[in-house]
Each structure stands twice: as structure tokens, then as C-alpha cells.
Fold each of these.
Amino acid sequence: MDIKALPKVELHLHLDCSLSYNVVNAIDPTITEAQYQEEFIAPAKCHNLADFLTRAPKGIELMQTPEQLKLVVRDLFKQLAADHVLYAELRFAPLQHLEKGLTPEEVVHYTEAATAQAVRETGIEARLILCTLRHYTEAQSMETVRLVEQFKDTHVTGFDIAADEAGFPIAAHVNAFEYARQHGLFCTAHAGEAKGPSSVWETLAYFGPSRIGHGVRSIEDPQLVAHLKKHQIHLEVCPTCNVQIDLYDTYAQHPVDKLYRAGVALNLNTDARTIVNVSLSEEYQKMQQTFGWDIADFYATNRQALLAAFIPNQLKQDLLFQLQKRYHALAPQQIPAQ
Ligand code: HPA
Ligand code: ZN
């Protein structure tokens, strides 16, 4: 199986944590490759999520003008093309890009315009998710969710909460998710990564997302696993990232395969291509090597990703059709024709 050539759907991908050395060098030629390795990429083992996240500001610093935002979006689309990504959702926190005087609205406008152009040029379908951050105030969370509403007829499609789950409670963000619900906005939320099942229960109860970013510690509570299945809550799983933040010692100990076999809807993602230092194809390779996933498993999880994607139904049907056609062409014995 040529893993690289498999069509892929990536739902959990931080734009600001996924700069290749090429684009870093184009934006700031004084940054050497050694510095990039040292400062932008986290070691294969971090102490925890907070330690991992200390690398994120390096990329964000380089994404403060319209031109820089455009370069970073184009760079990420090149990486998506190399992984044969069919559809991607890219996320970032607009309020982190105001250091050179852009307004939050301008940040979203320029990033959205760059995304629209990259979609046209590459043929890779994509949408943007705007993130609030755990340490933000209620006002910052509300400002972010209002941007999702304001841009909802563009490539901006949903709302997320990221950053340090273990360090900051949910209280400041409940109203923002309530606003999202009232306005019919798609939502996902990071949970069940740095904290256990109680964090996933709390997130489901107070934020009401249709997907969970990570959510892998749900495996520790069989009732939660049953709940995720019953309500078709999709998990955006990023195994290498979880091993890196030392949630699991090794890839083999990661519960992704158990969750999948238990019937939880999930798909594979990189989370942060630079900090994690992984491509989506490499992530798939590890799944094949560690858990013996074959083309039918990759097809099934990509199909689940599209079913959970934050897109209108007609586009979803078109992408599901393309996915099946392309997997069938690669493995006619295993993947049925339409
Ligand atoms: N968790 C929370 N916030 C993040 C992550 C993550 O894994 N990656 C980038 N921001
Ligand atoms: Zn993430």
C-alpha cells in the first residue's frame, strides 16, 4: 500500500504550529535550520502539554502581517498536497495575530482570502476554524466566536477552544459556546488530552461540541465511550502529538486502535506539523506498523472524518463520493464501488 498516495481528510491542524522551514526562512532569513530544529520543533518527549505549547509562539511571531499570513497558508497547502489531502480544516486563534496592528477582523479576512485562493489553486477543499484559548477572558472568547458568525458565509466554518486544558477551567468560555449554539455554528473543543474523562464530560455538557479535539482519555470511562458512540461525537485523534506530550509512553500504548475497534467515530490528524515534526502520511505509517491498519481502516476513518466535517451537506456528499471512488480505484477488492 502506498500510504502517501491515500486520499486523506485532516480535521485537526493548527495553522500557526505548522510552518515548514521554507516559509520560516522566507519570512525571516536570519533563522537558521538549526535554530528551527531547536526552537520551533519540540523534542520527541515533552514534560506535558504546557511544555509542548511553549514552542507555539515562534510560528505566531512570523504571522503578523497580511503577506506573512498568506505565505503560511500557501506553505501549509503545499504540505497538504504532499500528503494527498482531499479536505482539511485549519485552525488558529485570530487574537494572536495583532502584534503589528492588524485588527481581529483583518486577520480573519486576510487568512480567509489566502485560504480561498489556495483552495482555487490546489483543488484541495478546506475550511477554517477559529480558536479561543483556555487562558483567554470571557470577552476574548466572545470576540472570537462573533468572528465565526461574522465570517460564516466564507471559508470560516467553526469554533474551537485550544491551549492548556489542565491549567485553566472552562467557566470563562461557556457563554461563547452558548452563543455558538444559538447561532447554529459548528463547534469542536480540545478535551480529554491533558485531563481525563471528567474533562470530556464537562466539555460535552457545557460546550456541546459535535467533535472533540483528542478526547482519547475517554477510553478510561466505558460509560463515556458508550456516550460518544450513541451521540456520534467524533474524536479528532492525533497519536504522535499525544505520545510527545507524554500522555502515553509509546505509540503502541495509545488507545486510538481500541477506540476505533469499540466503534467510536474518529480520524487521524497531525495536530501541529512543525511542533510534532510529523506529516499525515507518517502518522498513517505508524498506524499501519503499530496496529496493522490497512486500506479499509484508512478508508473507514477518512469517511468518518467527512461525515463529521463542518461543511454543507451537498459538499459532504461530493467529497464522500470522491473518497470512495479514489479508494476503490486503489483497492477494488476491499473498497466497494459506488
Ligand atoms: N492541545 C491544546 N492546544 C493546542 C494543541 C493541543 O494539542 N496543539 C496546539 N495547540
Ligand atoms: Zn490541537
Amino acid sequence: YIFLRNETGCCRSRIKNEDRIIRKSKMDRNQIKVLIRQMTLEEKAGQVTQLPSRYFAIQGSQLTGTETKLGISEEKKWLCGSILGKLDAVSMRNIQKENLERSRLQIPLMFMTDIVHGYQTIFPVPLAMAGSFDPGMVRECARISAKEGSAAGYQVTFSPMVDVVRDPRWGRVMESFGEDSKLNCDFGKAMVEGYQGENLKDPDRLAACVKHFAAYGAAEGGRDYNTSDVSEFRLRNKYFPPFKACIDAGVKLVMAAFEALNGIPATANPWLLQDILRKDLEFEGTVISDWGAVLELIKHGVAEEEAEAGRLALESGVQIEMATAAIVKHIEVYVKKFPHLEAILDEAVEKVLILKNELGLFEDPYRGVDPEREMRELRSPDKKRAAFHAATESAVLLENNGILPLTKETPVILTGPYAESKNILGPWSVDGIVEDAITVKDGLILKGGRIKEVIQTAYEEVTEQDSDRIVQTVASGDVVVLALGEPELWSGEAGSRSVIELPEHQISLLKKLHEHQIPVVVLLFNGRPLDLRKVKEYADAVLEMWFPGTEGGNAAAALLYGEKNPSGKLAMSFPYGSGQIPVSYDMAPTGRPKADLVQEPRYKSQYLDIPNEPLYSFGYGLSYTEYDVQVNGKIVRQEQEYLVPVKVTNLGNMTGKTVVQIYIGKKKSLVARPVKELVAYKKIELQPGKSKEIVIPIEEKTLERWIPGKGWTKEKGEYTILVSNDGRNFQRMELTVG
Ligand code: GLC
């Protein structure tokens, strides 16, 4: 059937497609090898080529990278093995149909896109969702994203992104699961499981692509695409493990990063793509380049021209060239000069065909795409409820002098650039439906709040007239809800900023309200940690909403009115401004720890003007209730785990959740290890006044560290165990590992 859509994109009718060619039989490995032997050199080069949708769709595609002039014929274009970028189900079906009519060997096309934190129903940005400390919740969000994305016709998503990040100047921190390697492991694994499920032939699943391999988040100066220079010690202990976690979860693709890592571009780095990825991390799937990264080898200065760039990438271990066509254009030249390349090309083609086979595309190239299913799946109420839940669990209460929660009777003046803005889906919400976004104003009204006035301001300008009007509108007993934040495009890809403050007019308005003793609750909508020193000084409460997605306004209202008790924690430190960057909780002790100040006040590792610790630490987040966290006995070893007994009490009068975090440190080690590193955590819910005695397991494996000259080693001896639920106050325990 071919499906025709009316102007609103809804399915109008379907007409019989009498010439649909379906290969009924499942292909096995041997048949794939036979198929490869039947392919011409050019057909094989085509299979490893992935072209942007705009070269196939009449309209509607969206570029996420730089444009490149392809320079190939229409016929060669149709040899490509996969297409990336925005399309709708009807276009994908028609393109697949034309491909099958043209394909001599009936090899189906694969369709890939960026479904990063939702498809049309958008969840909070990943950096926010990491703050839920609930991988199970994020697995469900990925499952929902797969249902929507596959119903629309896609088969692969370029997600999860698990780049460990320590520099909020880098705009893509919003896409990561933060500064901690374990959180990136746990959430990356959860997303892979949510997207892929147990069987990729299941038509409402997507193959996942973990990215960007590797250490793209360590771009120097936080400037996107810049060089990363990272020691092997850090690469192996911090940056590689999240990829290993996703590989062990069965991720089907790995995307090579744009940047030069330790002098060699990741896209042409055999140490990275073969020695590390294939041998050490045991990846068996498909490596795809990033957008245009193969030709960028010329800009990096490691390739003279296009033909050399394509050959270098292929030889280094890239199996799909994204968005350019160097390999398919020059393959004849390659093989003449470098005959060994054909065997490498065959291996690459085999990876691509195996993936297509795992997706069931040889049996059904249309993979069950059906307009009724698409209409049923997209943006359904159950998915919006999941988006609401994710947004309430990811928000972080940073300050509260008691003003929150508000009562519905509290007269509210709602103002700021996010007062009634729908631009809260955040970067990488490529197919999100902005019209669906619930604004803060919508949310407060839907909750039956008493909204006295709404004064929407611009991001970077609050006129004198507006700020006077706000001040004059406020009467005694009123509260101002000030919805501040960065514009969406100030973070995300290529969204690097040298300073991480809010626009100054937003701070001026907040300061003015403070000077008039007007009670102010600040809501924040942003994709990166910000310098909140002034916000902390002038606000009575600060609720970090991040970019919360489709249900953001409903989540903000439920949290402001106390229907939901904030439980999110920070997955990335909020520094005292750019001068403190890079900053993370897992710093090494140095030979002159500041803690030793008592003896000698100057010659220590410190700043003269700010503390060493960030303004808000990793793991920090308040609630409307207080919790008491107590170590509750001795640590017991049980098989491959150490069980940490903890007793948690809800001291408040509201049901709430808190996250008990377990960190380890090693007193004496072969290397200068971080003072503390997260090894386990547990989110628990408690009724008012209730206590729970829980046991949090530390997996023995998490004690291992990669040590230069020794490899992965579990060091024996004395460990310090730190227990906390706010990343600031710690209970200490000792653990001896024999
Ligand atoms: C972009 C991003 C990558 C994305 C790809 C396809 O440049 O770096 O994360 O998946 O292109 O859109």
C-alpha cells in the first residue's frame, strides 16, 4: 500500500501497491556473504554510504550538519545503503519502494534519525533525566520514543549520547548524562534497552547508536568540535566505560566523534576504532561517522583530498560514511592502488547487511509502517503522562526559604521569557511538536492557580516599562514566579558559550524585585549548568526545570503547588562561573589539598577568590521535606557485592523521594585517585515521618580501576565509603577489601 496524506499530515487514504517486492526468507550469515559476493564494487561502496534525506525528499528534511556538495550522479545516489534525517512515513515508504525498484539485488534501505529525548512526545533533555537517578524511568522513555519513531518509519536512532562532560561552556552537555561515568553507564544502558528491547524484528523497536566515540565532551575550552586531549588513565576510567556499558547492553551502532583525540581525529583513528572499540570493548556492530566527519579529515589536515579522506576512514574502521560520498565516488581508485581495501569494504558491507537483517528489513522493508499505527502511537495521552512524570522527577529544587510550595490561593504574577513560552522542548527535539508544549502559564491555570497577571518578557531585554509594571502590579501577599533561562539555541550542538550566566536583563529584573522585598520564585529553563550566584542571592526559591519537554508547564505547576515533591538531583556541578571550569565532584586530592589549610593558609591547591567546590554540587537537590540518612550497621560482603546498610527517615509532613548515594575513596592506591567516586545509588519514597532500612549493594567490579602498566585492577586494602543524599553532607564508613 502507498499512503497518501492530507495537508495536516494525517492519512487520507491508502491505495493498493501491486508491485511491492518482499523477500520472504530471513537471511542468515551465509546468505549475506553470498549476497556480498554478488555485489559489484560500486554497490558495496554504496551500502556504506548514508545520505541526508533532503537528497530524496521533496521537502521537510532538516539538516543537522554542514552542507556538502555531493557531486555524484542520481544513479549512484540510489546505491546508498541508508538515509538520515527528517522524513515522514509516506516519504519513507515511497523512497523504499523506489529503492527496491532500482536495487539490482533487492537490498532494502535503512532510515536513521536523531531521536535523543523523544520523537514527537518530548521528554526532558538527558542531562535533566540523569538527575532523576532513575534509569528504569528513562528506559521507559526510550521505549516510548521507539514506539513513536518506528511508527513514523525510522529504524535507527542516533542515541544515547554518553559523553562524560565537565565543562558547561560546551553546549552539548544537555545531551549527556552529566559528569559522572557511572550515571552515563547506567542511563546509556537503560536507553539502549528501551530502544532495542529483546528483538529488533519487533516493528516498534529501534536500533540504537551510542555516541560520540570518544571524549567529544572534553573539547578544549568547551568550544564545540575542538581538540580533546585526555590521558589514557581518564579515557579508560571515565570516558570509555559508558560505551562499554552500552556495548554490553547490545547497542548496534557506535558513532565516531568529530574531534581529534590526542592528536588523531576519531574518524581516522585505528587505535580508537579497532584496538579499543573492537578488542578492548568487544564491539561487534557497525561504526558510523558523524555528519561530514569523513571529509573533515581534510580540514583536520590528515587527508590531502576527498579520496584520501574516504580511504583513511574506511581503513581506520568506519563502516558507514554519513552525509558525504567520498568512498562511493573513489572506490575504484582505492582498490586499484590499495587492493587490501576491498576486504575491508566487504567487512563493512557485512556489518551493514547484518544490521538490516536484524531489523527484519529483508523480510519486510517497510517494517510494518502503517498510518493507523502512526496516528495511534504519536503523542498519545499515555506518552504525555510519561513525559509529565519524567519532567517532575528530573526537576531540581536548588533553593527554598519556605516560600514553596505555593497554595492555589496565592496570587501569582507570572513573568520572564519563559512565562508563556512553548520553546521548552530543548535542543535535539528535532521532531518535537512545539504546539503540544504546555507553557508555565498553561500549567498554573490548569492546576486552578490564582494568576493575577502574566507579563511575558524577551530573553535579553526587559524594558524599564515592563519591570516597573511588574513591580507596580505586586500587592502584599502576592508572589512573583519569574520564569528565566537561556534561549534553546544557546546550548545544543555548536552552542558553546564563554560565560555561563543568564542574560543580564533577567538578573536586573530579579534584583529589582528583591530590592522591593517582593517574594520571588525563580524557575529556570536551560540546557547547561549556569553561574547562579546572583540568582541564589536574590531569589526566595529556585527550581531548575532544565528543558523539561512537552509537559514542562504541567510539571512546573505540580511542583510549585506541592502536588509533586521535588526529588531531582544534579547530574552536573554548577560552578562559581567560568573561572572554575572544569569542575566536577570527582577531583583528585592533589599534593596540597585545601583541607590542610589549618597548618599553612597559602600554599595549597585553591583559588584566592572562590571555593574549590562548585556552587551546587553533583548529587545536590532539595525537597519540600527533610530526610535523615544514617549508616545503619556494618558493610557485609555477599558474593560479588558489598552491602551498605542505610536507614532513611522522612522528617517532613509530605510524602517524598530522596536519592541515597554511595561513593568510594581509597586511602592508599597505586594512582592518585579521585577523593570520591559514585559507585551506587538508590531512590526511595517515604511517607511523612516514616523510616526505611535499606541495603545498597556496591558491585565488586566497580572497585576496579584501570592502572597504567597494570590494566584493570581491583586494589586490596582500606576504602572509605561515603553515604549522602545531597552531594554535600556525608556519613563515613570503612571497608577493607581483601
Ligand atoms: C550531528 C551530531 C550527531 C548527530 C548527527 C546526525 O552533527 O554531531 O550527534 O547524530 O549529526 O544528525
Amino acid sequence: MTKREIADVLNDIATLMELKGENPFKIRAYSNGARKLETLDEDLGALIEAETLGDIPGFGKALVEKIETLYREGRLEFYEKLKESIEPGIVLMLEIPGLGAKKIKALHKALGVSSIEALQQACEDNLVADLKGFGKKSQEKIAEGIKNREAYGKRHLWWRARAVAEPILEGLLALPEVEKASHAGSFRRKREHVGDLDFIVASSAPAPVMDWFVAQEGVKEVTAQGETKASVRFESGLQADLRVVPFKQFSFALHHFTGSKDHNVLMRQRALARGLSLSEWGLKPADAESFESGLEVDSEEAIFALLDLKFVPPELREGFGEIEAAEDAGFPQLLKVDDLRGVFHNHTTASDGRASLGEMTEAAQQRGWEYWGVADHSKASFQANGLNETRVLDQIERIEKLNASKAYSTHVFSGNETDILPDGSLDLEESVLMRLDYVVASVHSSFTQTEEAMTARIVRAIENPATTMLGHLSGRLLLRRESYQLDVAKVVDAAIANDVIIELNANPYRLDMDWRFWRKAAEKGLLTSINPDAHAPDHFDFVEAGVNAARKGWLSPENVINTLPLKAVTAILAKKRQHLRGA
Ligand code: DGT
Ligand code: CA
Ligand code: CA
Ligand code: ZN
């Protein structure tokens, strides 16, 4: 275990002992030990090796033994037993915001409550209000905390977190005391959802920065505040952490708190192999006393360079092979929003979209796109007012007329998001599918098929010569609905073999096919299309979320069909159609 993980365990032990009502001196020994460990400059492994950990004031014999065991074995029987000795429902109560171990113990003792549900009931029955040391106000707070626990515990979509994150960074950068400021954590790595936001600031005057941070608009609760660290919670339950560091520590702190944890572990190992010790505080010779006299850098680039690595873009810091690439050839030129010249898979009022063909074309033109594609639903998606064959033919005619009128400089492709029926056939007649410029084939029904049936169903749709691309591969809705079961590798291989594109659905709730699959799939030759699945003009913005996911999947412009100019795209789509027309 690392220093930090051990500190977490010690803090846990202190909390659990408090729940049990043990000796406060003992409890404090653990929480003090945790804090000492967290701020320890020396390398823990070296101290243990030299058997000098006990020389540090505050580390008694019992504590040293436990730290050593955790360091060597990664587990501690004392801790396991302690956890087992307390009812799980009581431990869970710690998740109620504003409720600490001491109060939980008192509630348990006085009312016999040993679960959140029981505590909630006790609040409703007005039992907590009458307790000594609690009262009506505190009962209300507990009840509200129980209600909020769910919202606070959950993760937040990157897209929504951004609305909170961007003004915070702007606010920090506007403060005169702030020398540098950046996002960090999963938000900076552009994960599809984030647990909390992290900010790193360089300043020699932390106090006013902290004051601004905890008092900013929208803050509902200050959950922690120290001299250089603070955490706040917003109305939505989203939390934000701030760390203020001296200027010369900024790049190290930024790198550390950007993570991921897996990436950090690999970086630290690499440093150690070079006789160096890397941390949020700096980079120093492993045997040097402190980070004070460590190496100085003026950027993250410099940290990577000191470890003989090319710069790793934050999106790729997931411990997914980025270190190997950074010590070797480096990275592909990652996709950017500006690389896109148009988009496919969008809806209009003909099915379930909220804007007309003209309005959507206007919006695409405003973005400077050379083309955009309609892909309204097909008839099996009756709940979305899907089009039957007659309506599809009528829409094709309207689009042809619109293009011929030259009313807009943006070309409109006529496509359709055609349902993949439970048996893998497509929802519209082949003669009609032939007339379309392209087909996005998607699953919208029978989600509960077995993995085998679902995989065969999708592969059959891929093999249909009318299919140009596959829509939202897994059917997942992030934080809302799991993906259906399917064998992604098989589907990817079938798509490559049949010249079918797999979309990267850019709706922030979908981001599907998942970024974790893209690097390998693209290496094998799979093409994608960044598809906003827009149901209104402003949904075209979603392409940014799609590009984030594409970057996390190591994709560059050549992997993405909608980076191509109109002429080249037209030729690729036509090729698929010629094949079909010839059949
Ligand atoms: P999240 O907030 O769950 O979406 O994910 P992150 O990656 O933002 O995680 P967070 O906020 O807990 O911590 C920010 C970064 O700080 C994390 O990516 C890496 C670093 N970090 C935090 N805890 C540890 C740790 O125990 N060990 C190491 N090596 N790094 C850590
Ligand atoms: Ca975070
Ligand atoms: Ca955090
Ligand atoms: Zn769809």
C-alpha cells in the first residue's frame, strides 16, 4: 500500500473506533498518525527499511507495527476485525452528510437505530428532536442529509459538471493572488462522468483564494476548509476540491491531482527506477532529505521530459499503455472539434426532433459545416414517430429539392436511423434503403436478449449491404441504464470485414461505442463517425463530448469519416450504395 492508502486506513480505524466509543486518546493516535503520514516528506519504504519510523514523534510502537504490516501486506487483521465488529448499517450512516461518528454512536445508544432507514423513521417520529444534544434543528438536518445522500453519492456527467467547473476556473484566474490555476482530476482527463471536481492553484497568498472559493455563488456547504485545501458542495450534490500550492510546486501538484491513480503509480515507478522520487510536492533524488531541494520544472512537459517521456495529453493518462507510447513513438495527433466538417445521425420534426429540416440546415451552416445528414427514425420506433417507406421517399425528395435550391451552402445527406429488428433484419424495405445516401442501423427494442442473440442480431445488421454505420452500439445511458449484453470484439471484427462504420454517439449520456474499445479497434482499421444524434440545433454542441471520448480512445482525424471534405465523404457513401445497387 502507498503512504496515502495507509493514511486512509488509519483514518478509517479512528472513525470505526469512535463508532464503538473507544478511548479518545487511542482514537487520536490513529488520526494524528494518518495526518503525519500524509505530510511525511521521506520515502516510507526507506524509513521502514531502516527501522526508523518509530523515531518520528507521534508514531508509537503499535502504530508503527500496523503501518509496516499495511505497507508490506496491503491488509491488516486488526482493521478487518474492527470492521466486522460493527453493524454494516451503522457504518453506512457515516455517508449521511453532516453526521459524524460521535453522533451516530449517541443515536444508536439512545434509540437503538442501526440502519439509515431506522434513523429516517426516528426523525419522522420526532424522536431525535427530543434527544439530549440534538433538538429539532439537528433532526431536520439529519433528515435532509438522508434525502441528499443519494444525490451526493452519485457521479456527475462530465457535460453537466462542466457548467459548474468552467466558471470556477474563470473566477480563480481572475483573482489577483492567483498566479496559475487549472482543472485537475477526472474532469481534466475528460472522463464521461466525474466523482468530484479538482482545482489546483499556484499562489503565495492562499487565504484570499480559499475565502473566495468557499464563498462563491452556488456553494451550499463547505465540507472541509484548511489553510491550503478546501472542499465545497454545490446544490446538485457535486463537490469541488481546491488545493493551493507555491508556484514552484504547481506543475507537480497539477500532474499528481490530474491522475489517474493508475497513471501516477506508473510514473512513480518510472521515477524510482531512475533513482528519483516523484510526488505532488516534486521530484527529487530518492535519497534526498526533502522535496525542498528537488528538481525544478516550469511545466508538466518538463516532468515528463525528466523521466525521458514525451508529453502525455491528460485524456490519455489512464494507465492504458500511455507510458509505453510516451517513451517510444509518442501519440497520434488527437482529434479536435475543428477537424469535423459535418455530422451524420440527426433528427428533425419528421420523427422525434424538435427542429425542421430547414432550421437544422441553417444551424449546420452557421457552424461552417460542409454537410450534415438527416437520420430520422424508422417505423418500428413508433413512439418516436418513425417514418415508413412512403414518408422516407417523400423526405428524400424534399432533401433533393433543398440541395438543388442552393438555399444553403451546407449540403444535406438523406439518411435514416433504421431499427435493427429483434432478428437482425432492418426495419425498411431494401429498395427504399437503397435510395438513401446512408443508413445508421440501431437497436431500439428487445434489449434483454442473451449476449449470443444480441451479438448475432447486430452482426446480421452489419452484413446487410444497406448498412453504412452502426448507431449507439451498446444502448447504454450513462448513470441511468446499463448496456445490453453483446460481444463487442465480435461486432468490431464484423464491422471491419463489411466496411461498416461504428459511430461514436456524442450525446453526453451515450458516448457509445465506449472510448476503452477504440484504440484497439482503430488499429485494426475500424472507422468512426462523431455523431451528435441531435434532436435540436443546439445538440450539435454534443460533438465536443464525442471528440473528448474520441481523444480518450486515441483517435486521430484519419479514423473519423466526418473529418473528410464533402467530395471524399460523398464518394465513400456512394461506394456502399453502388455495391448495393449492383446487387
Ligand atoms: P473522480 O473524482 O472519482 O471522478 O476521479 P479523480 O481521478 O478525479 O479522483 P480524485 O478526485 O479522488 O483525485 C484526483 C487525483 O488525485 C487522482 O486522479 C489521482 C490523485 N490521487 C488521489 N488519491 C490518490 C491515491 O490514493 N494515490 C495516488 N497515486 N493518486 C491519488
Ligand atoms: Ca475528482
Ligand atoms: Ca477530488
Ligand atoms: Zn437511436
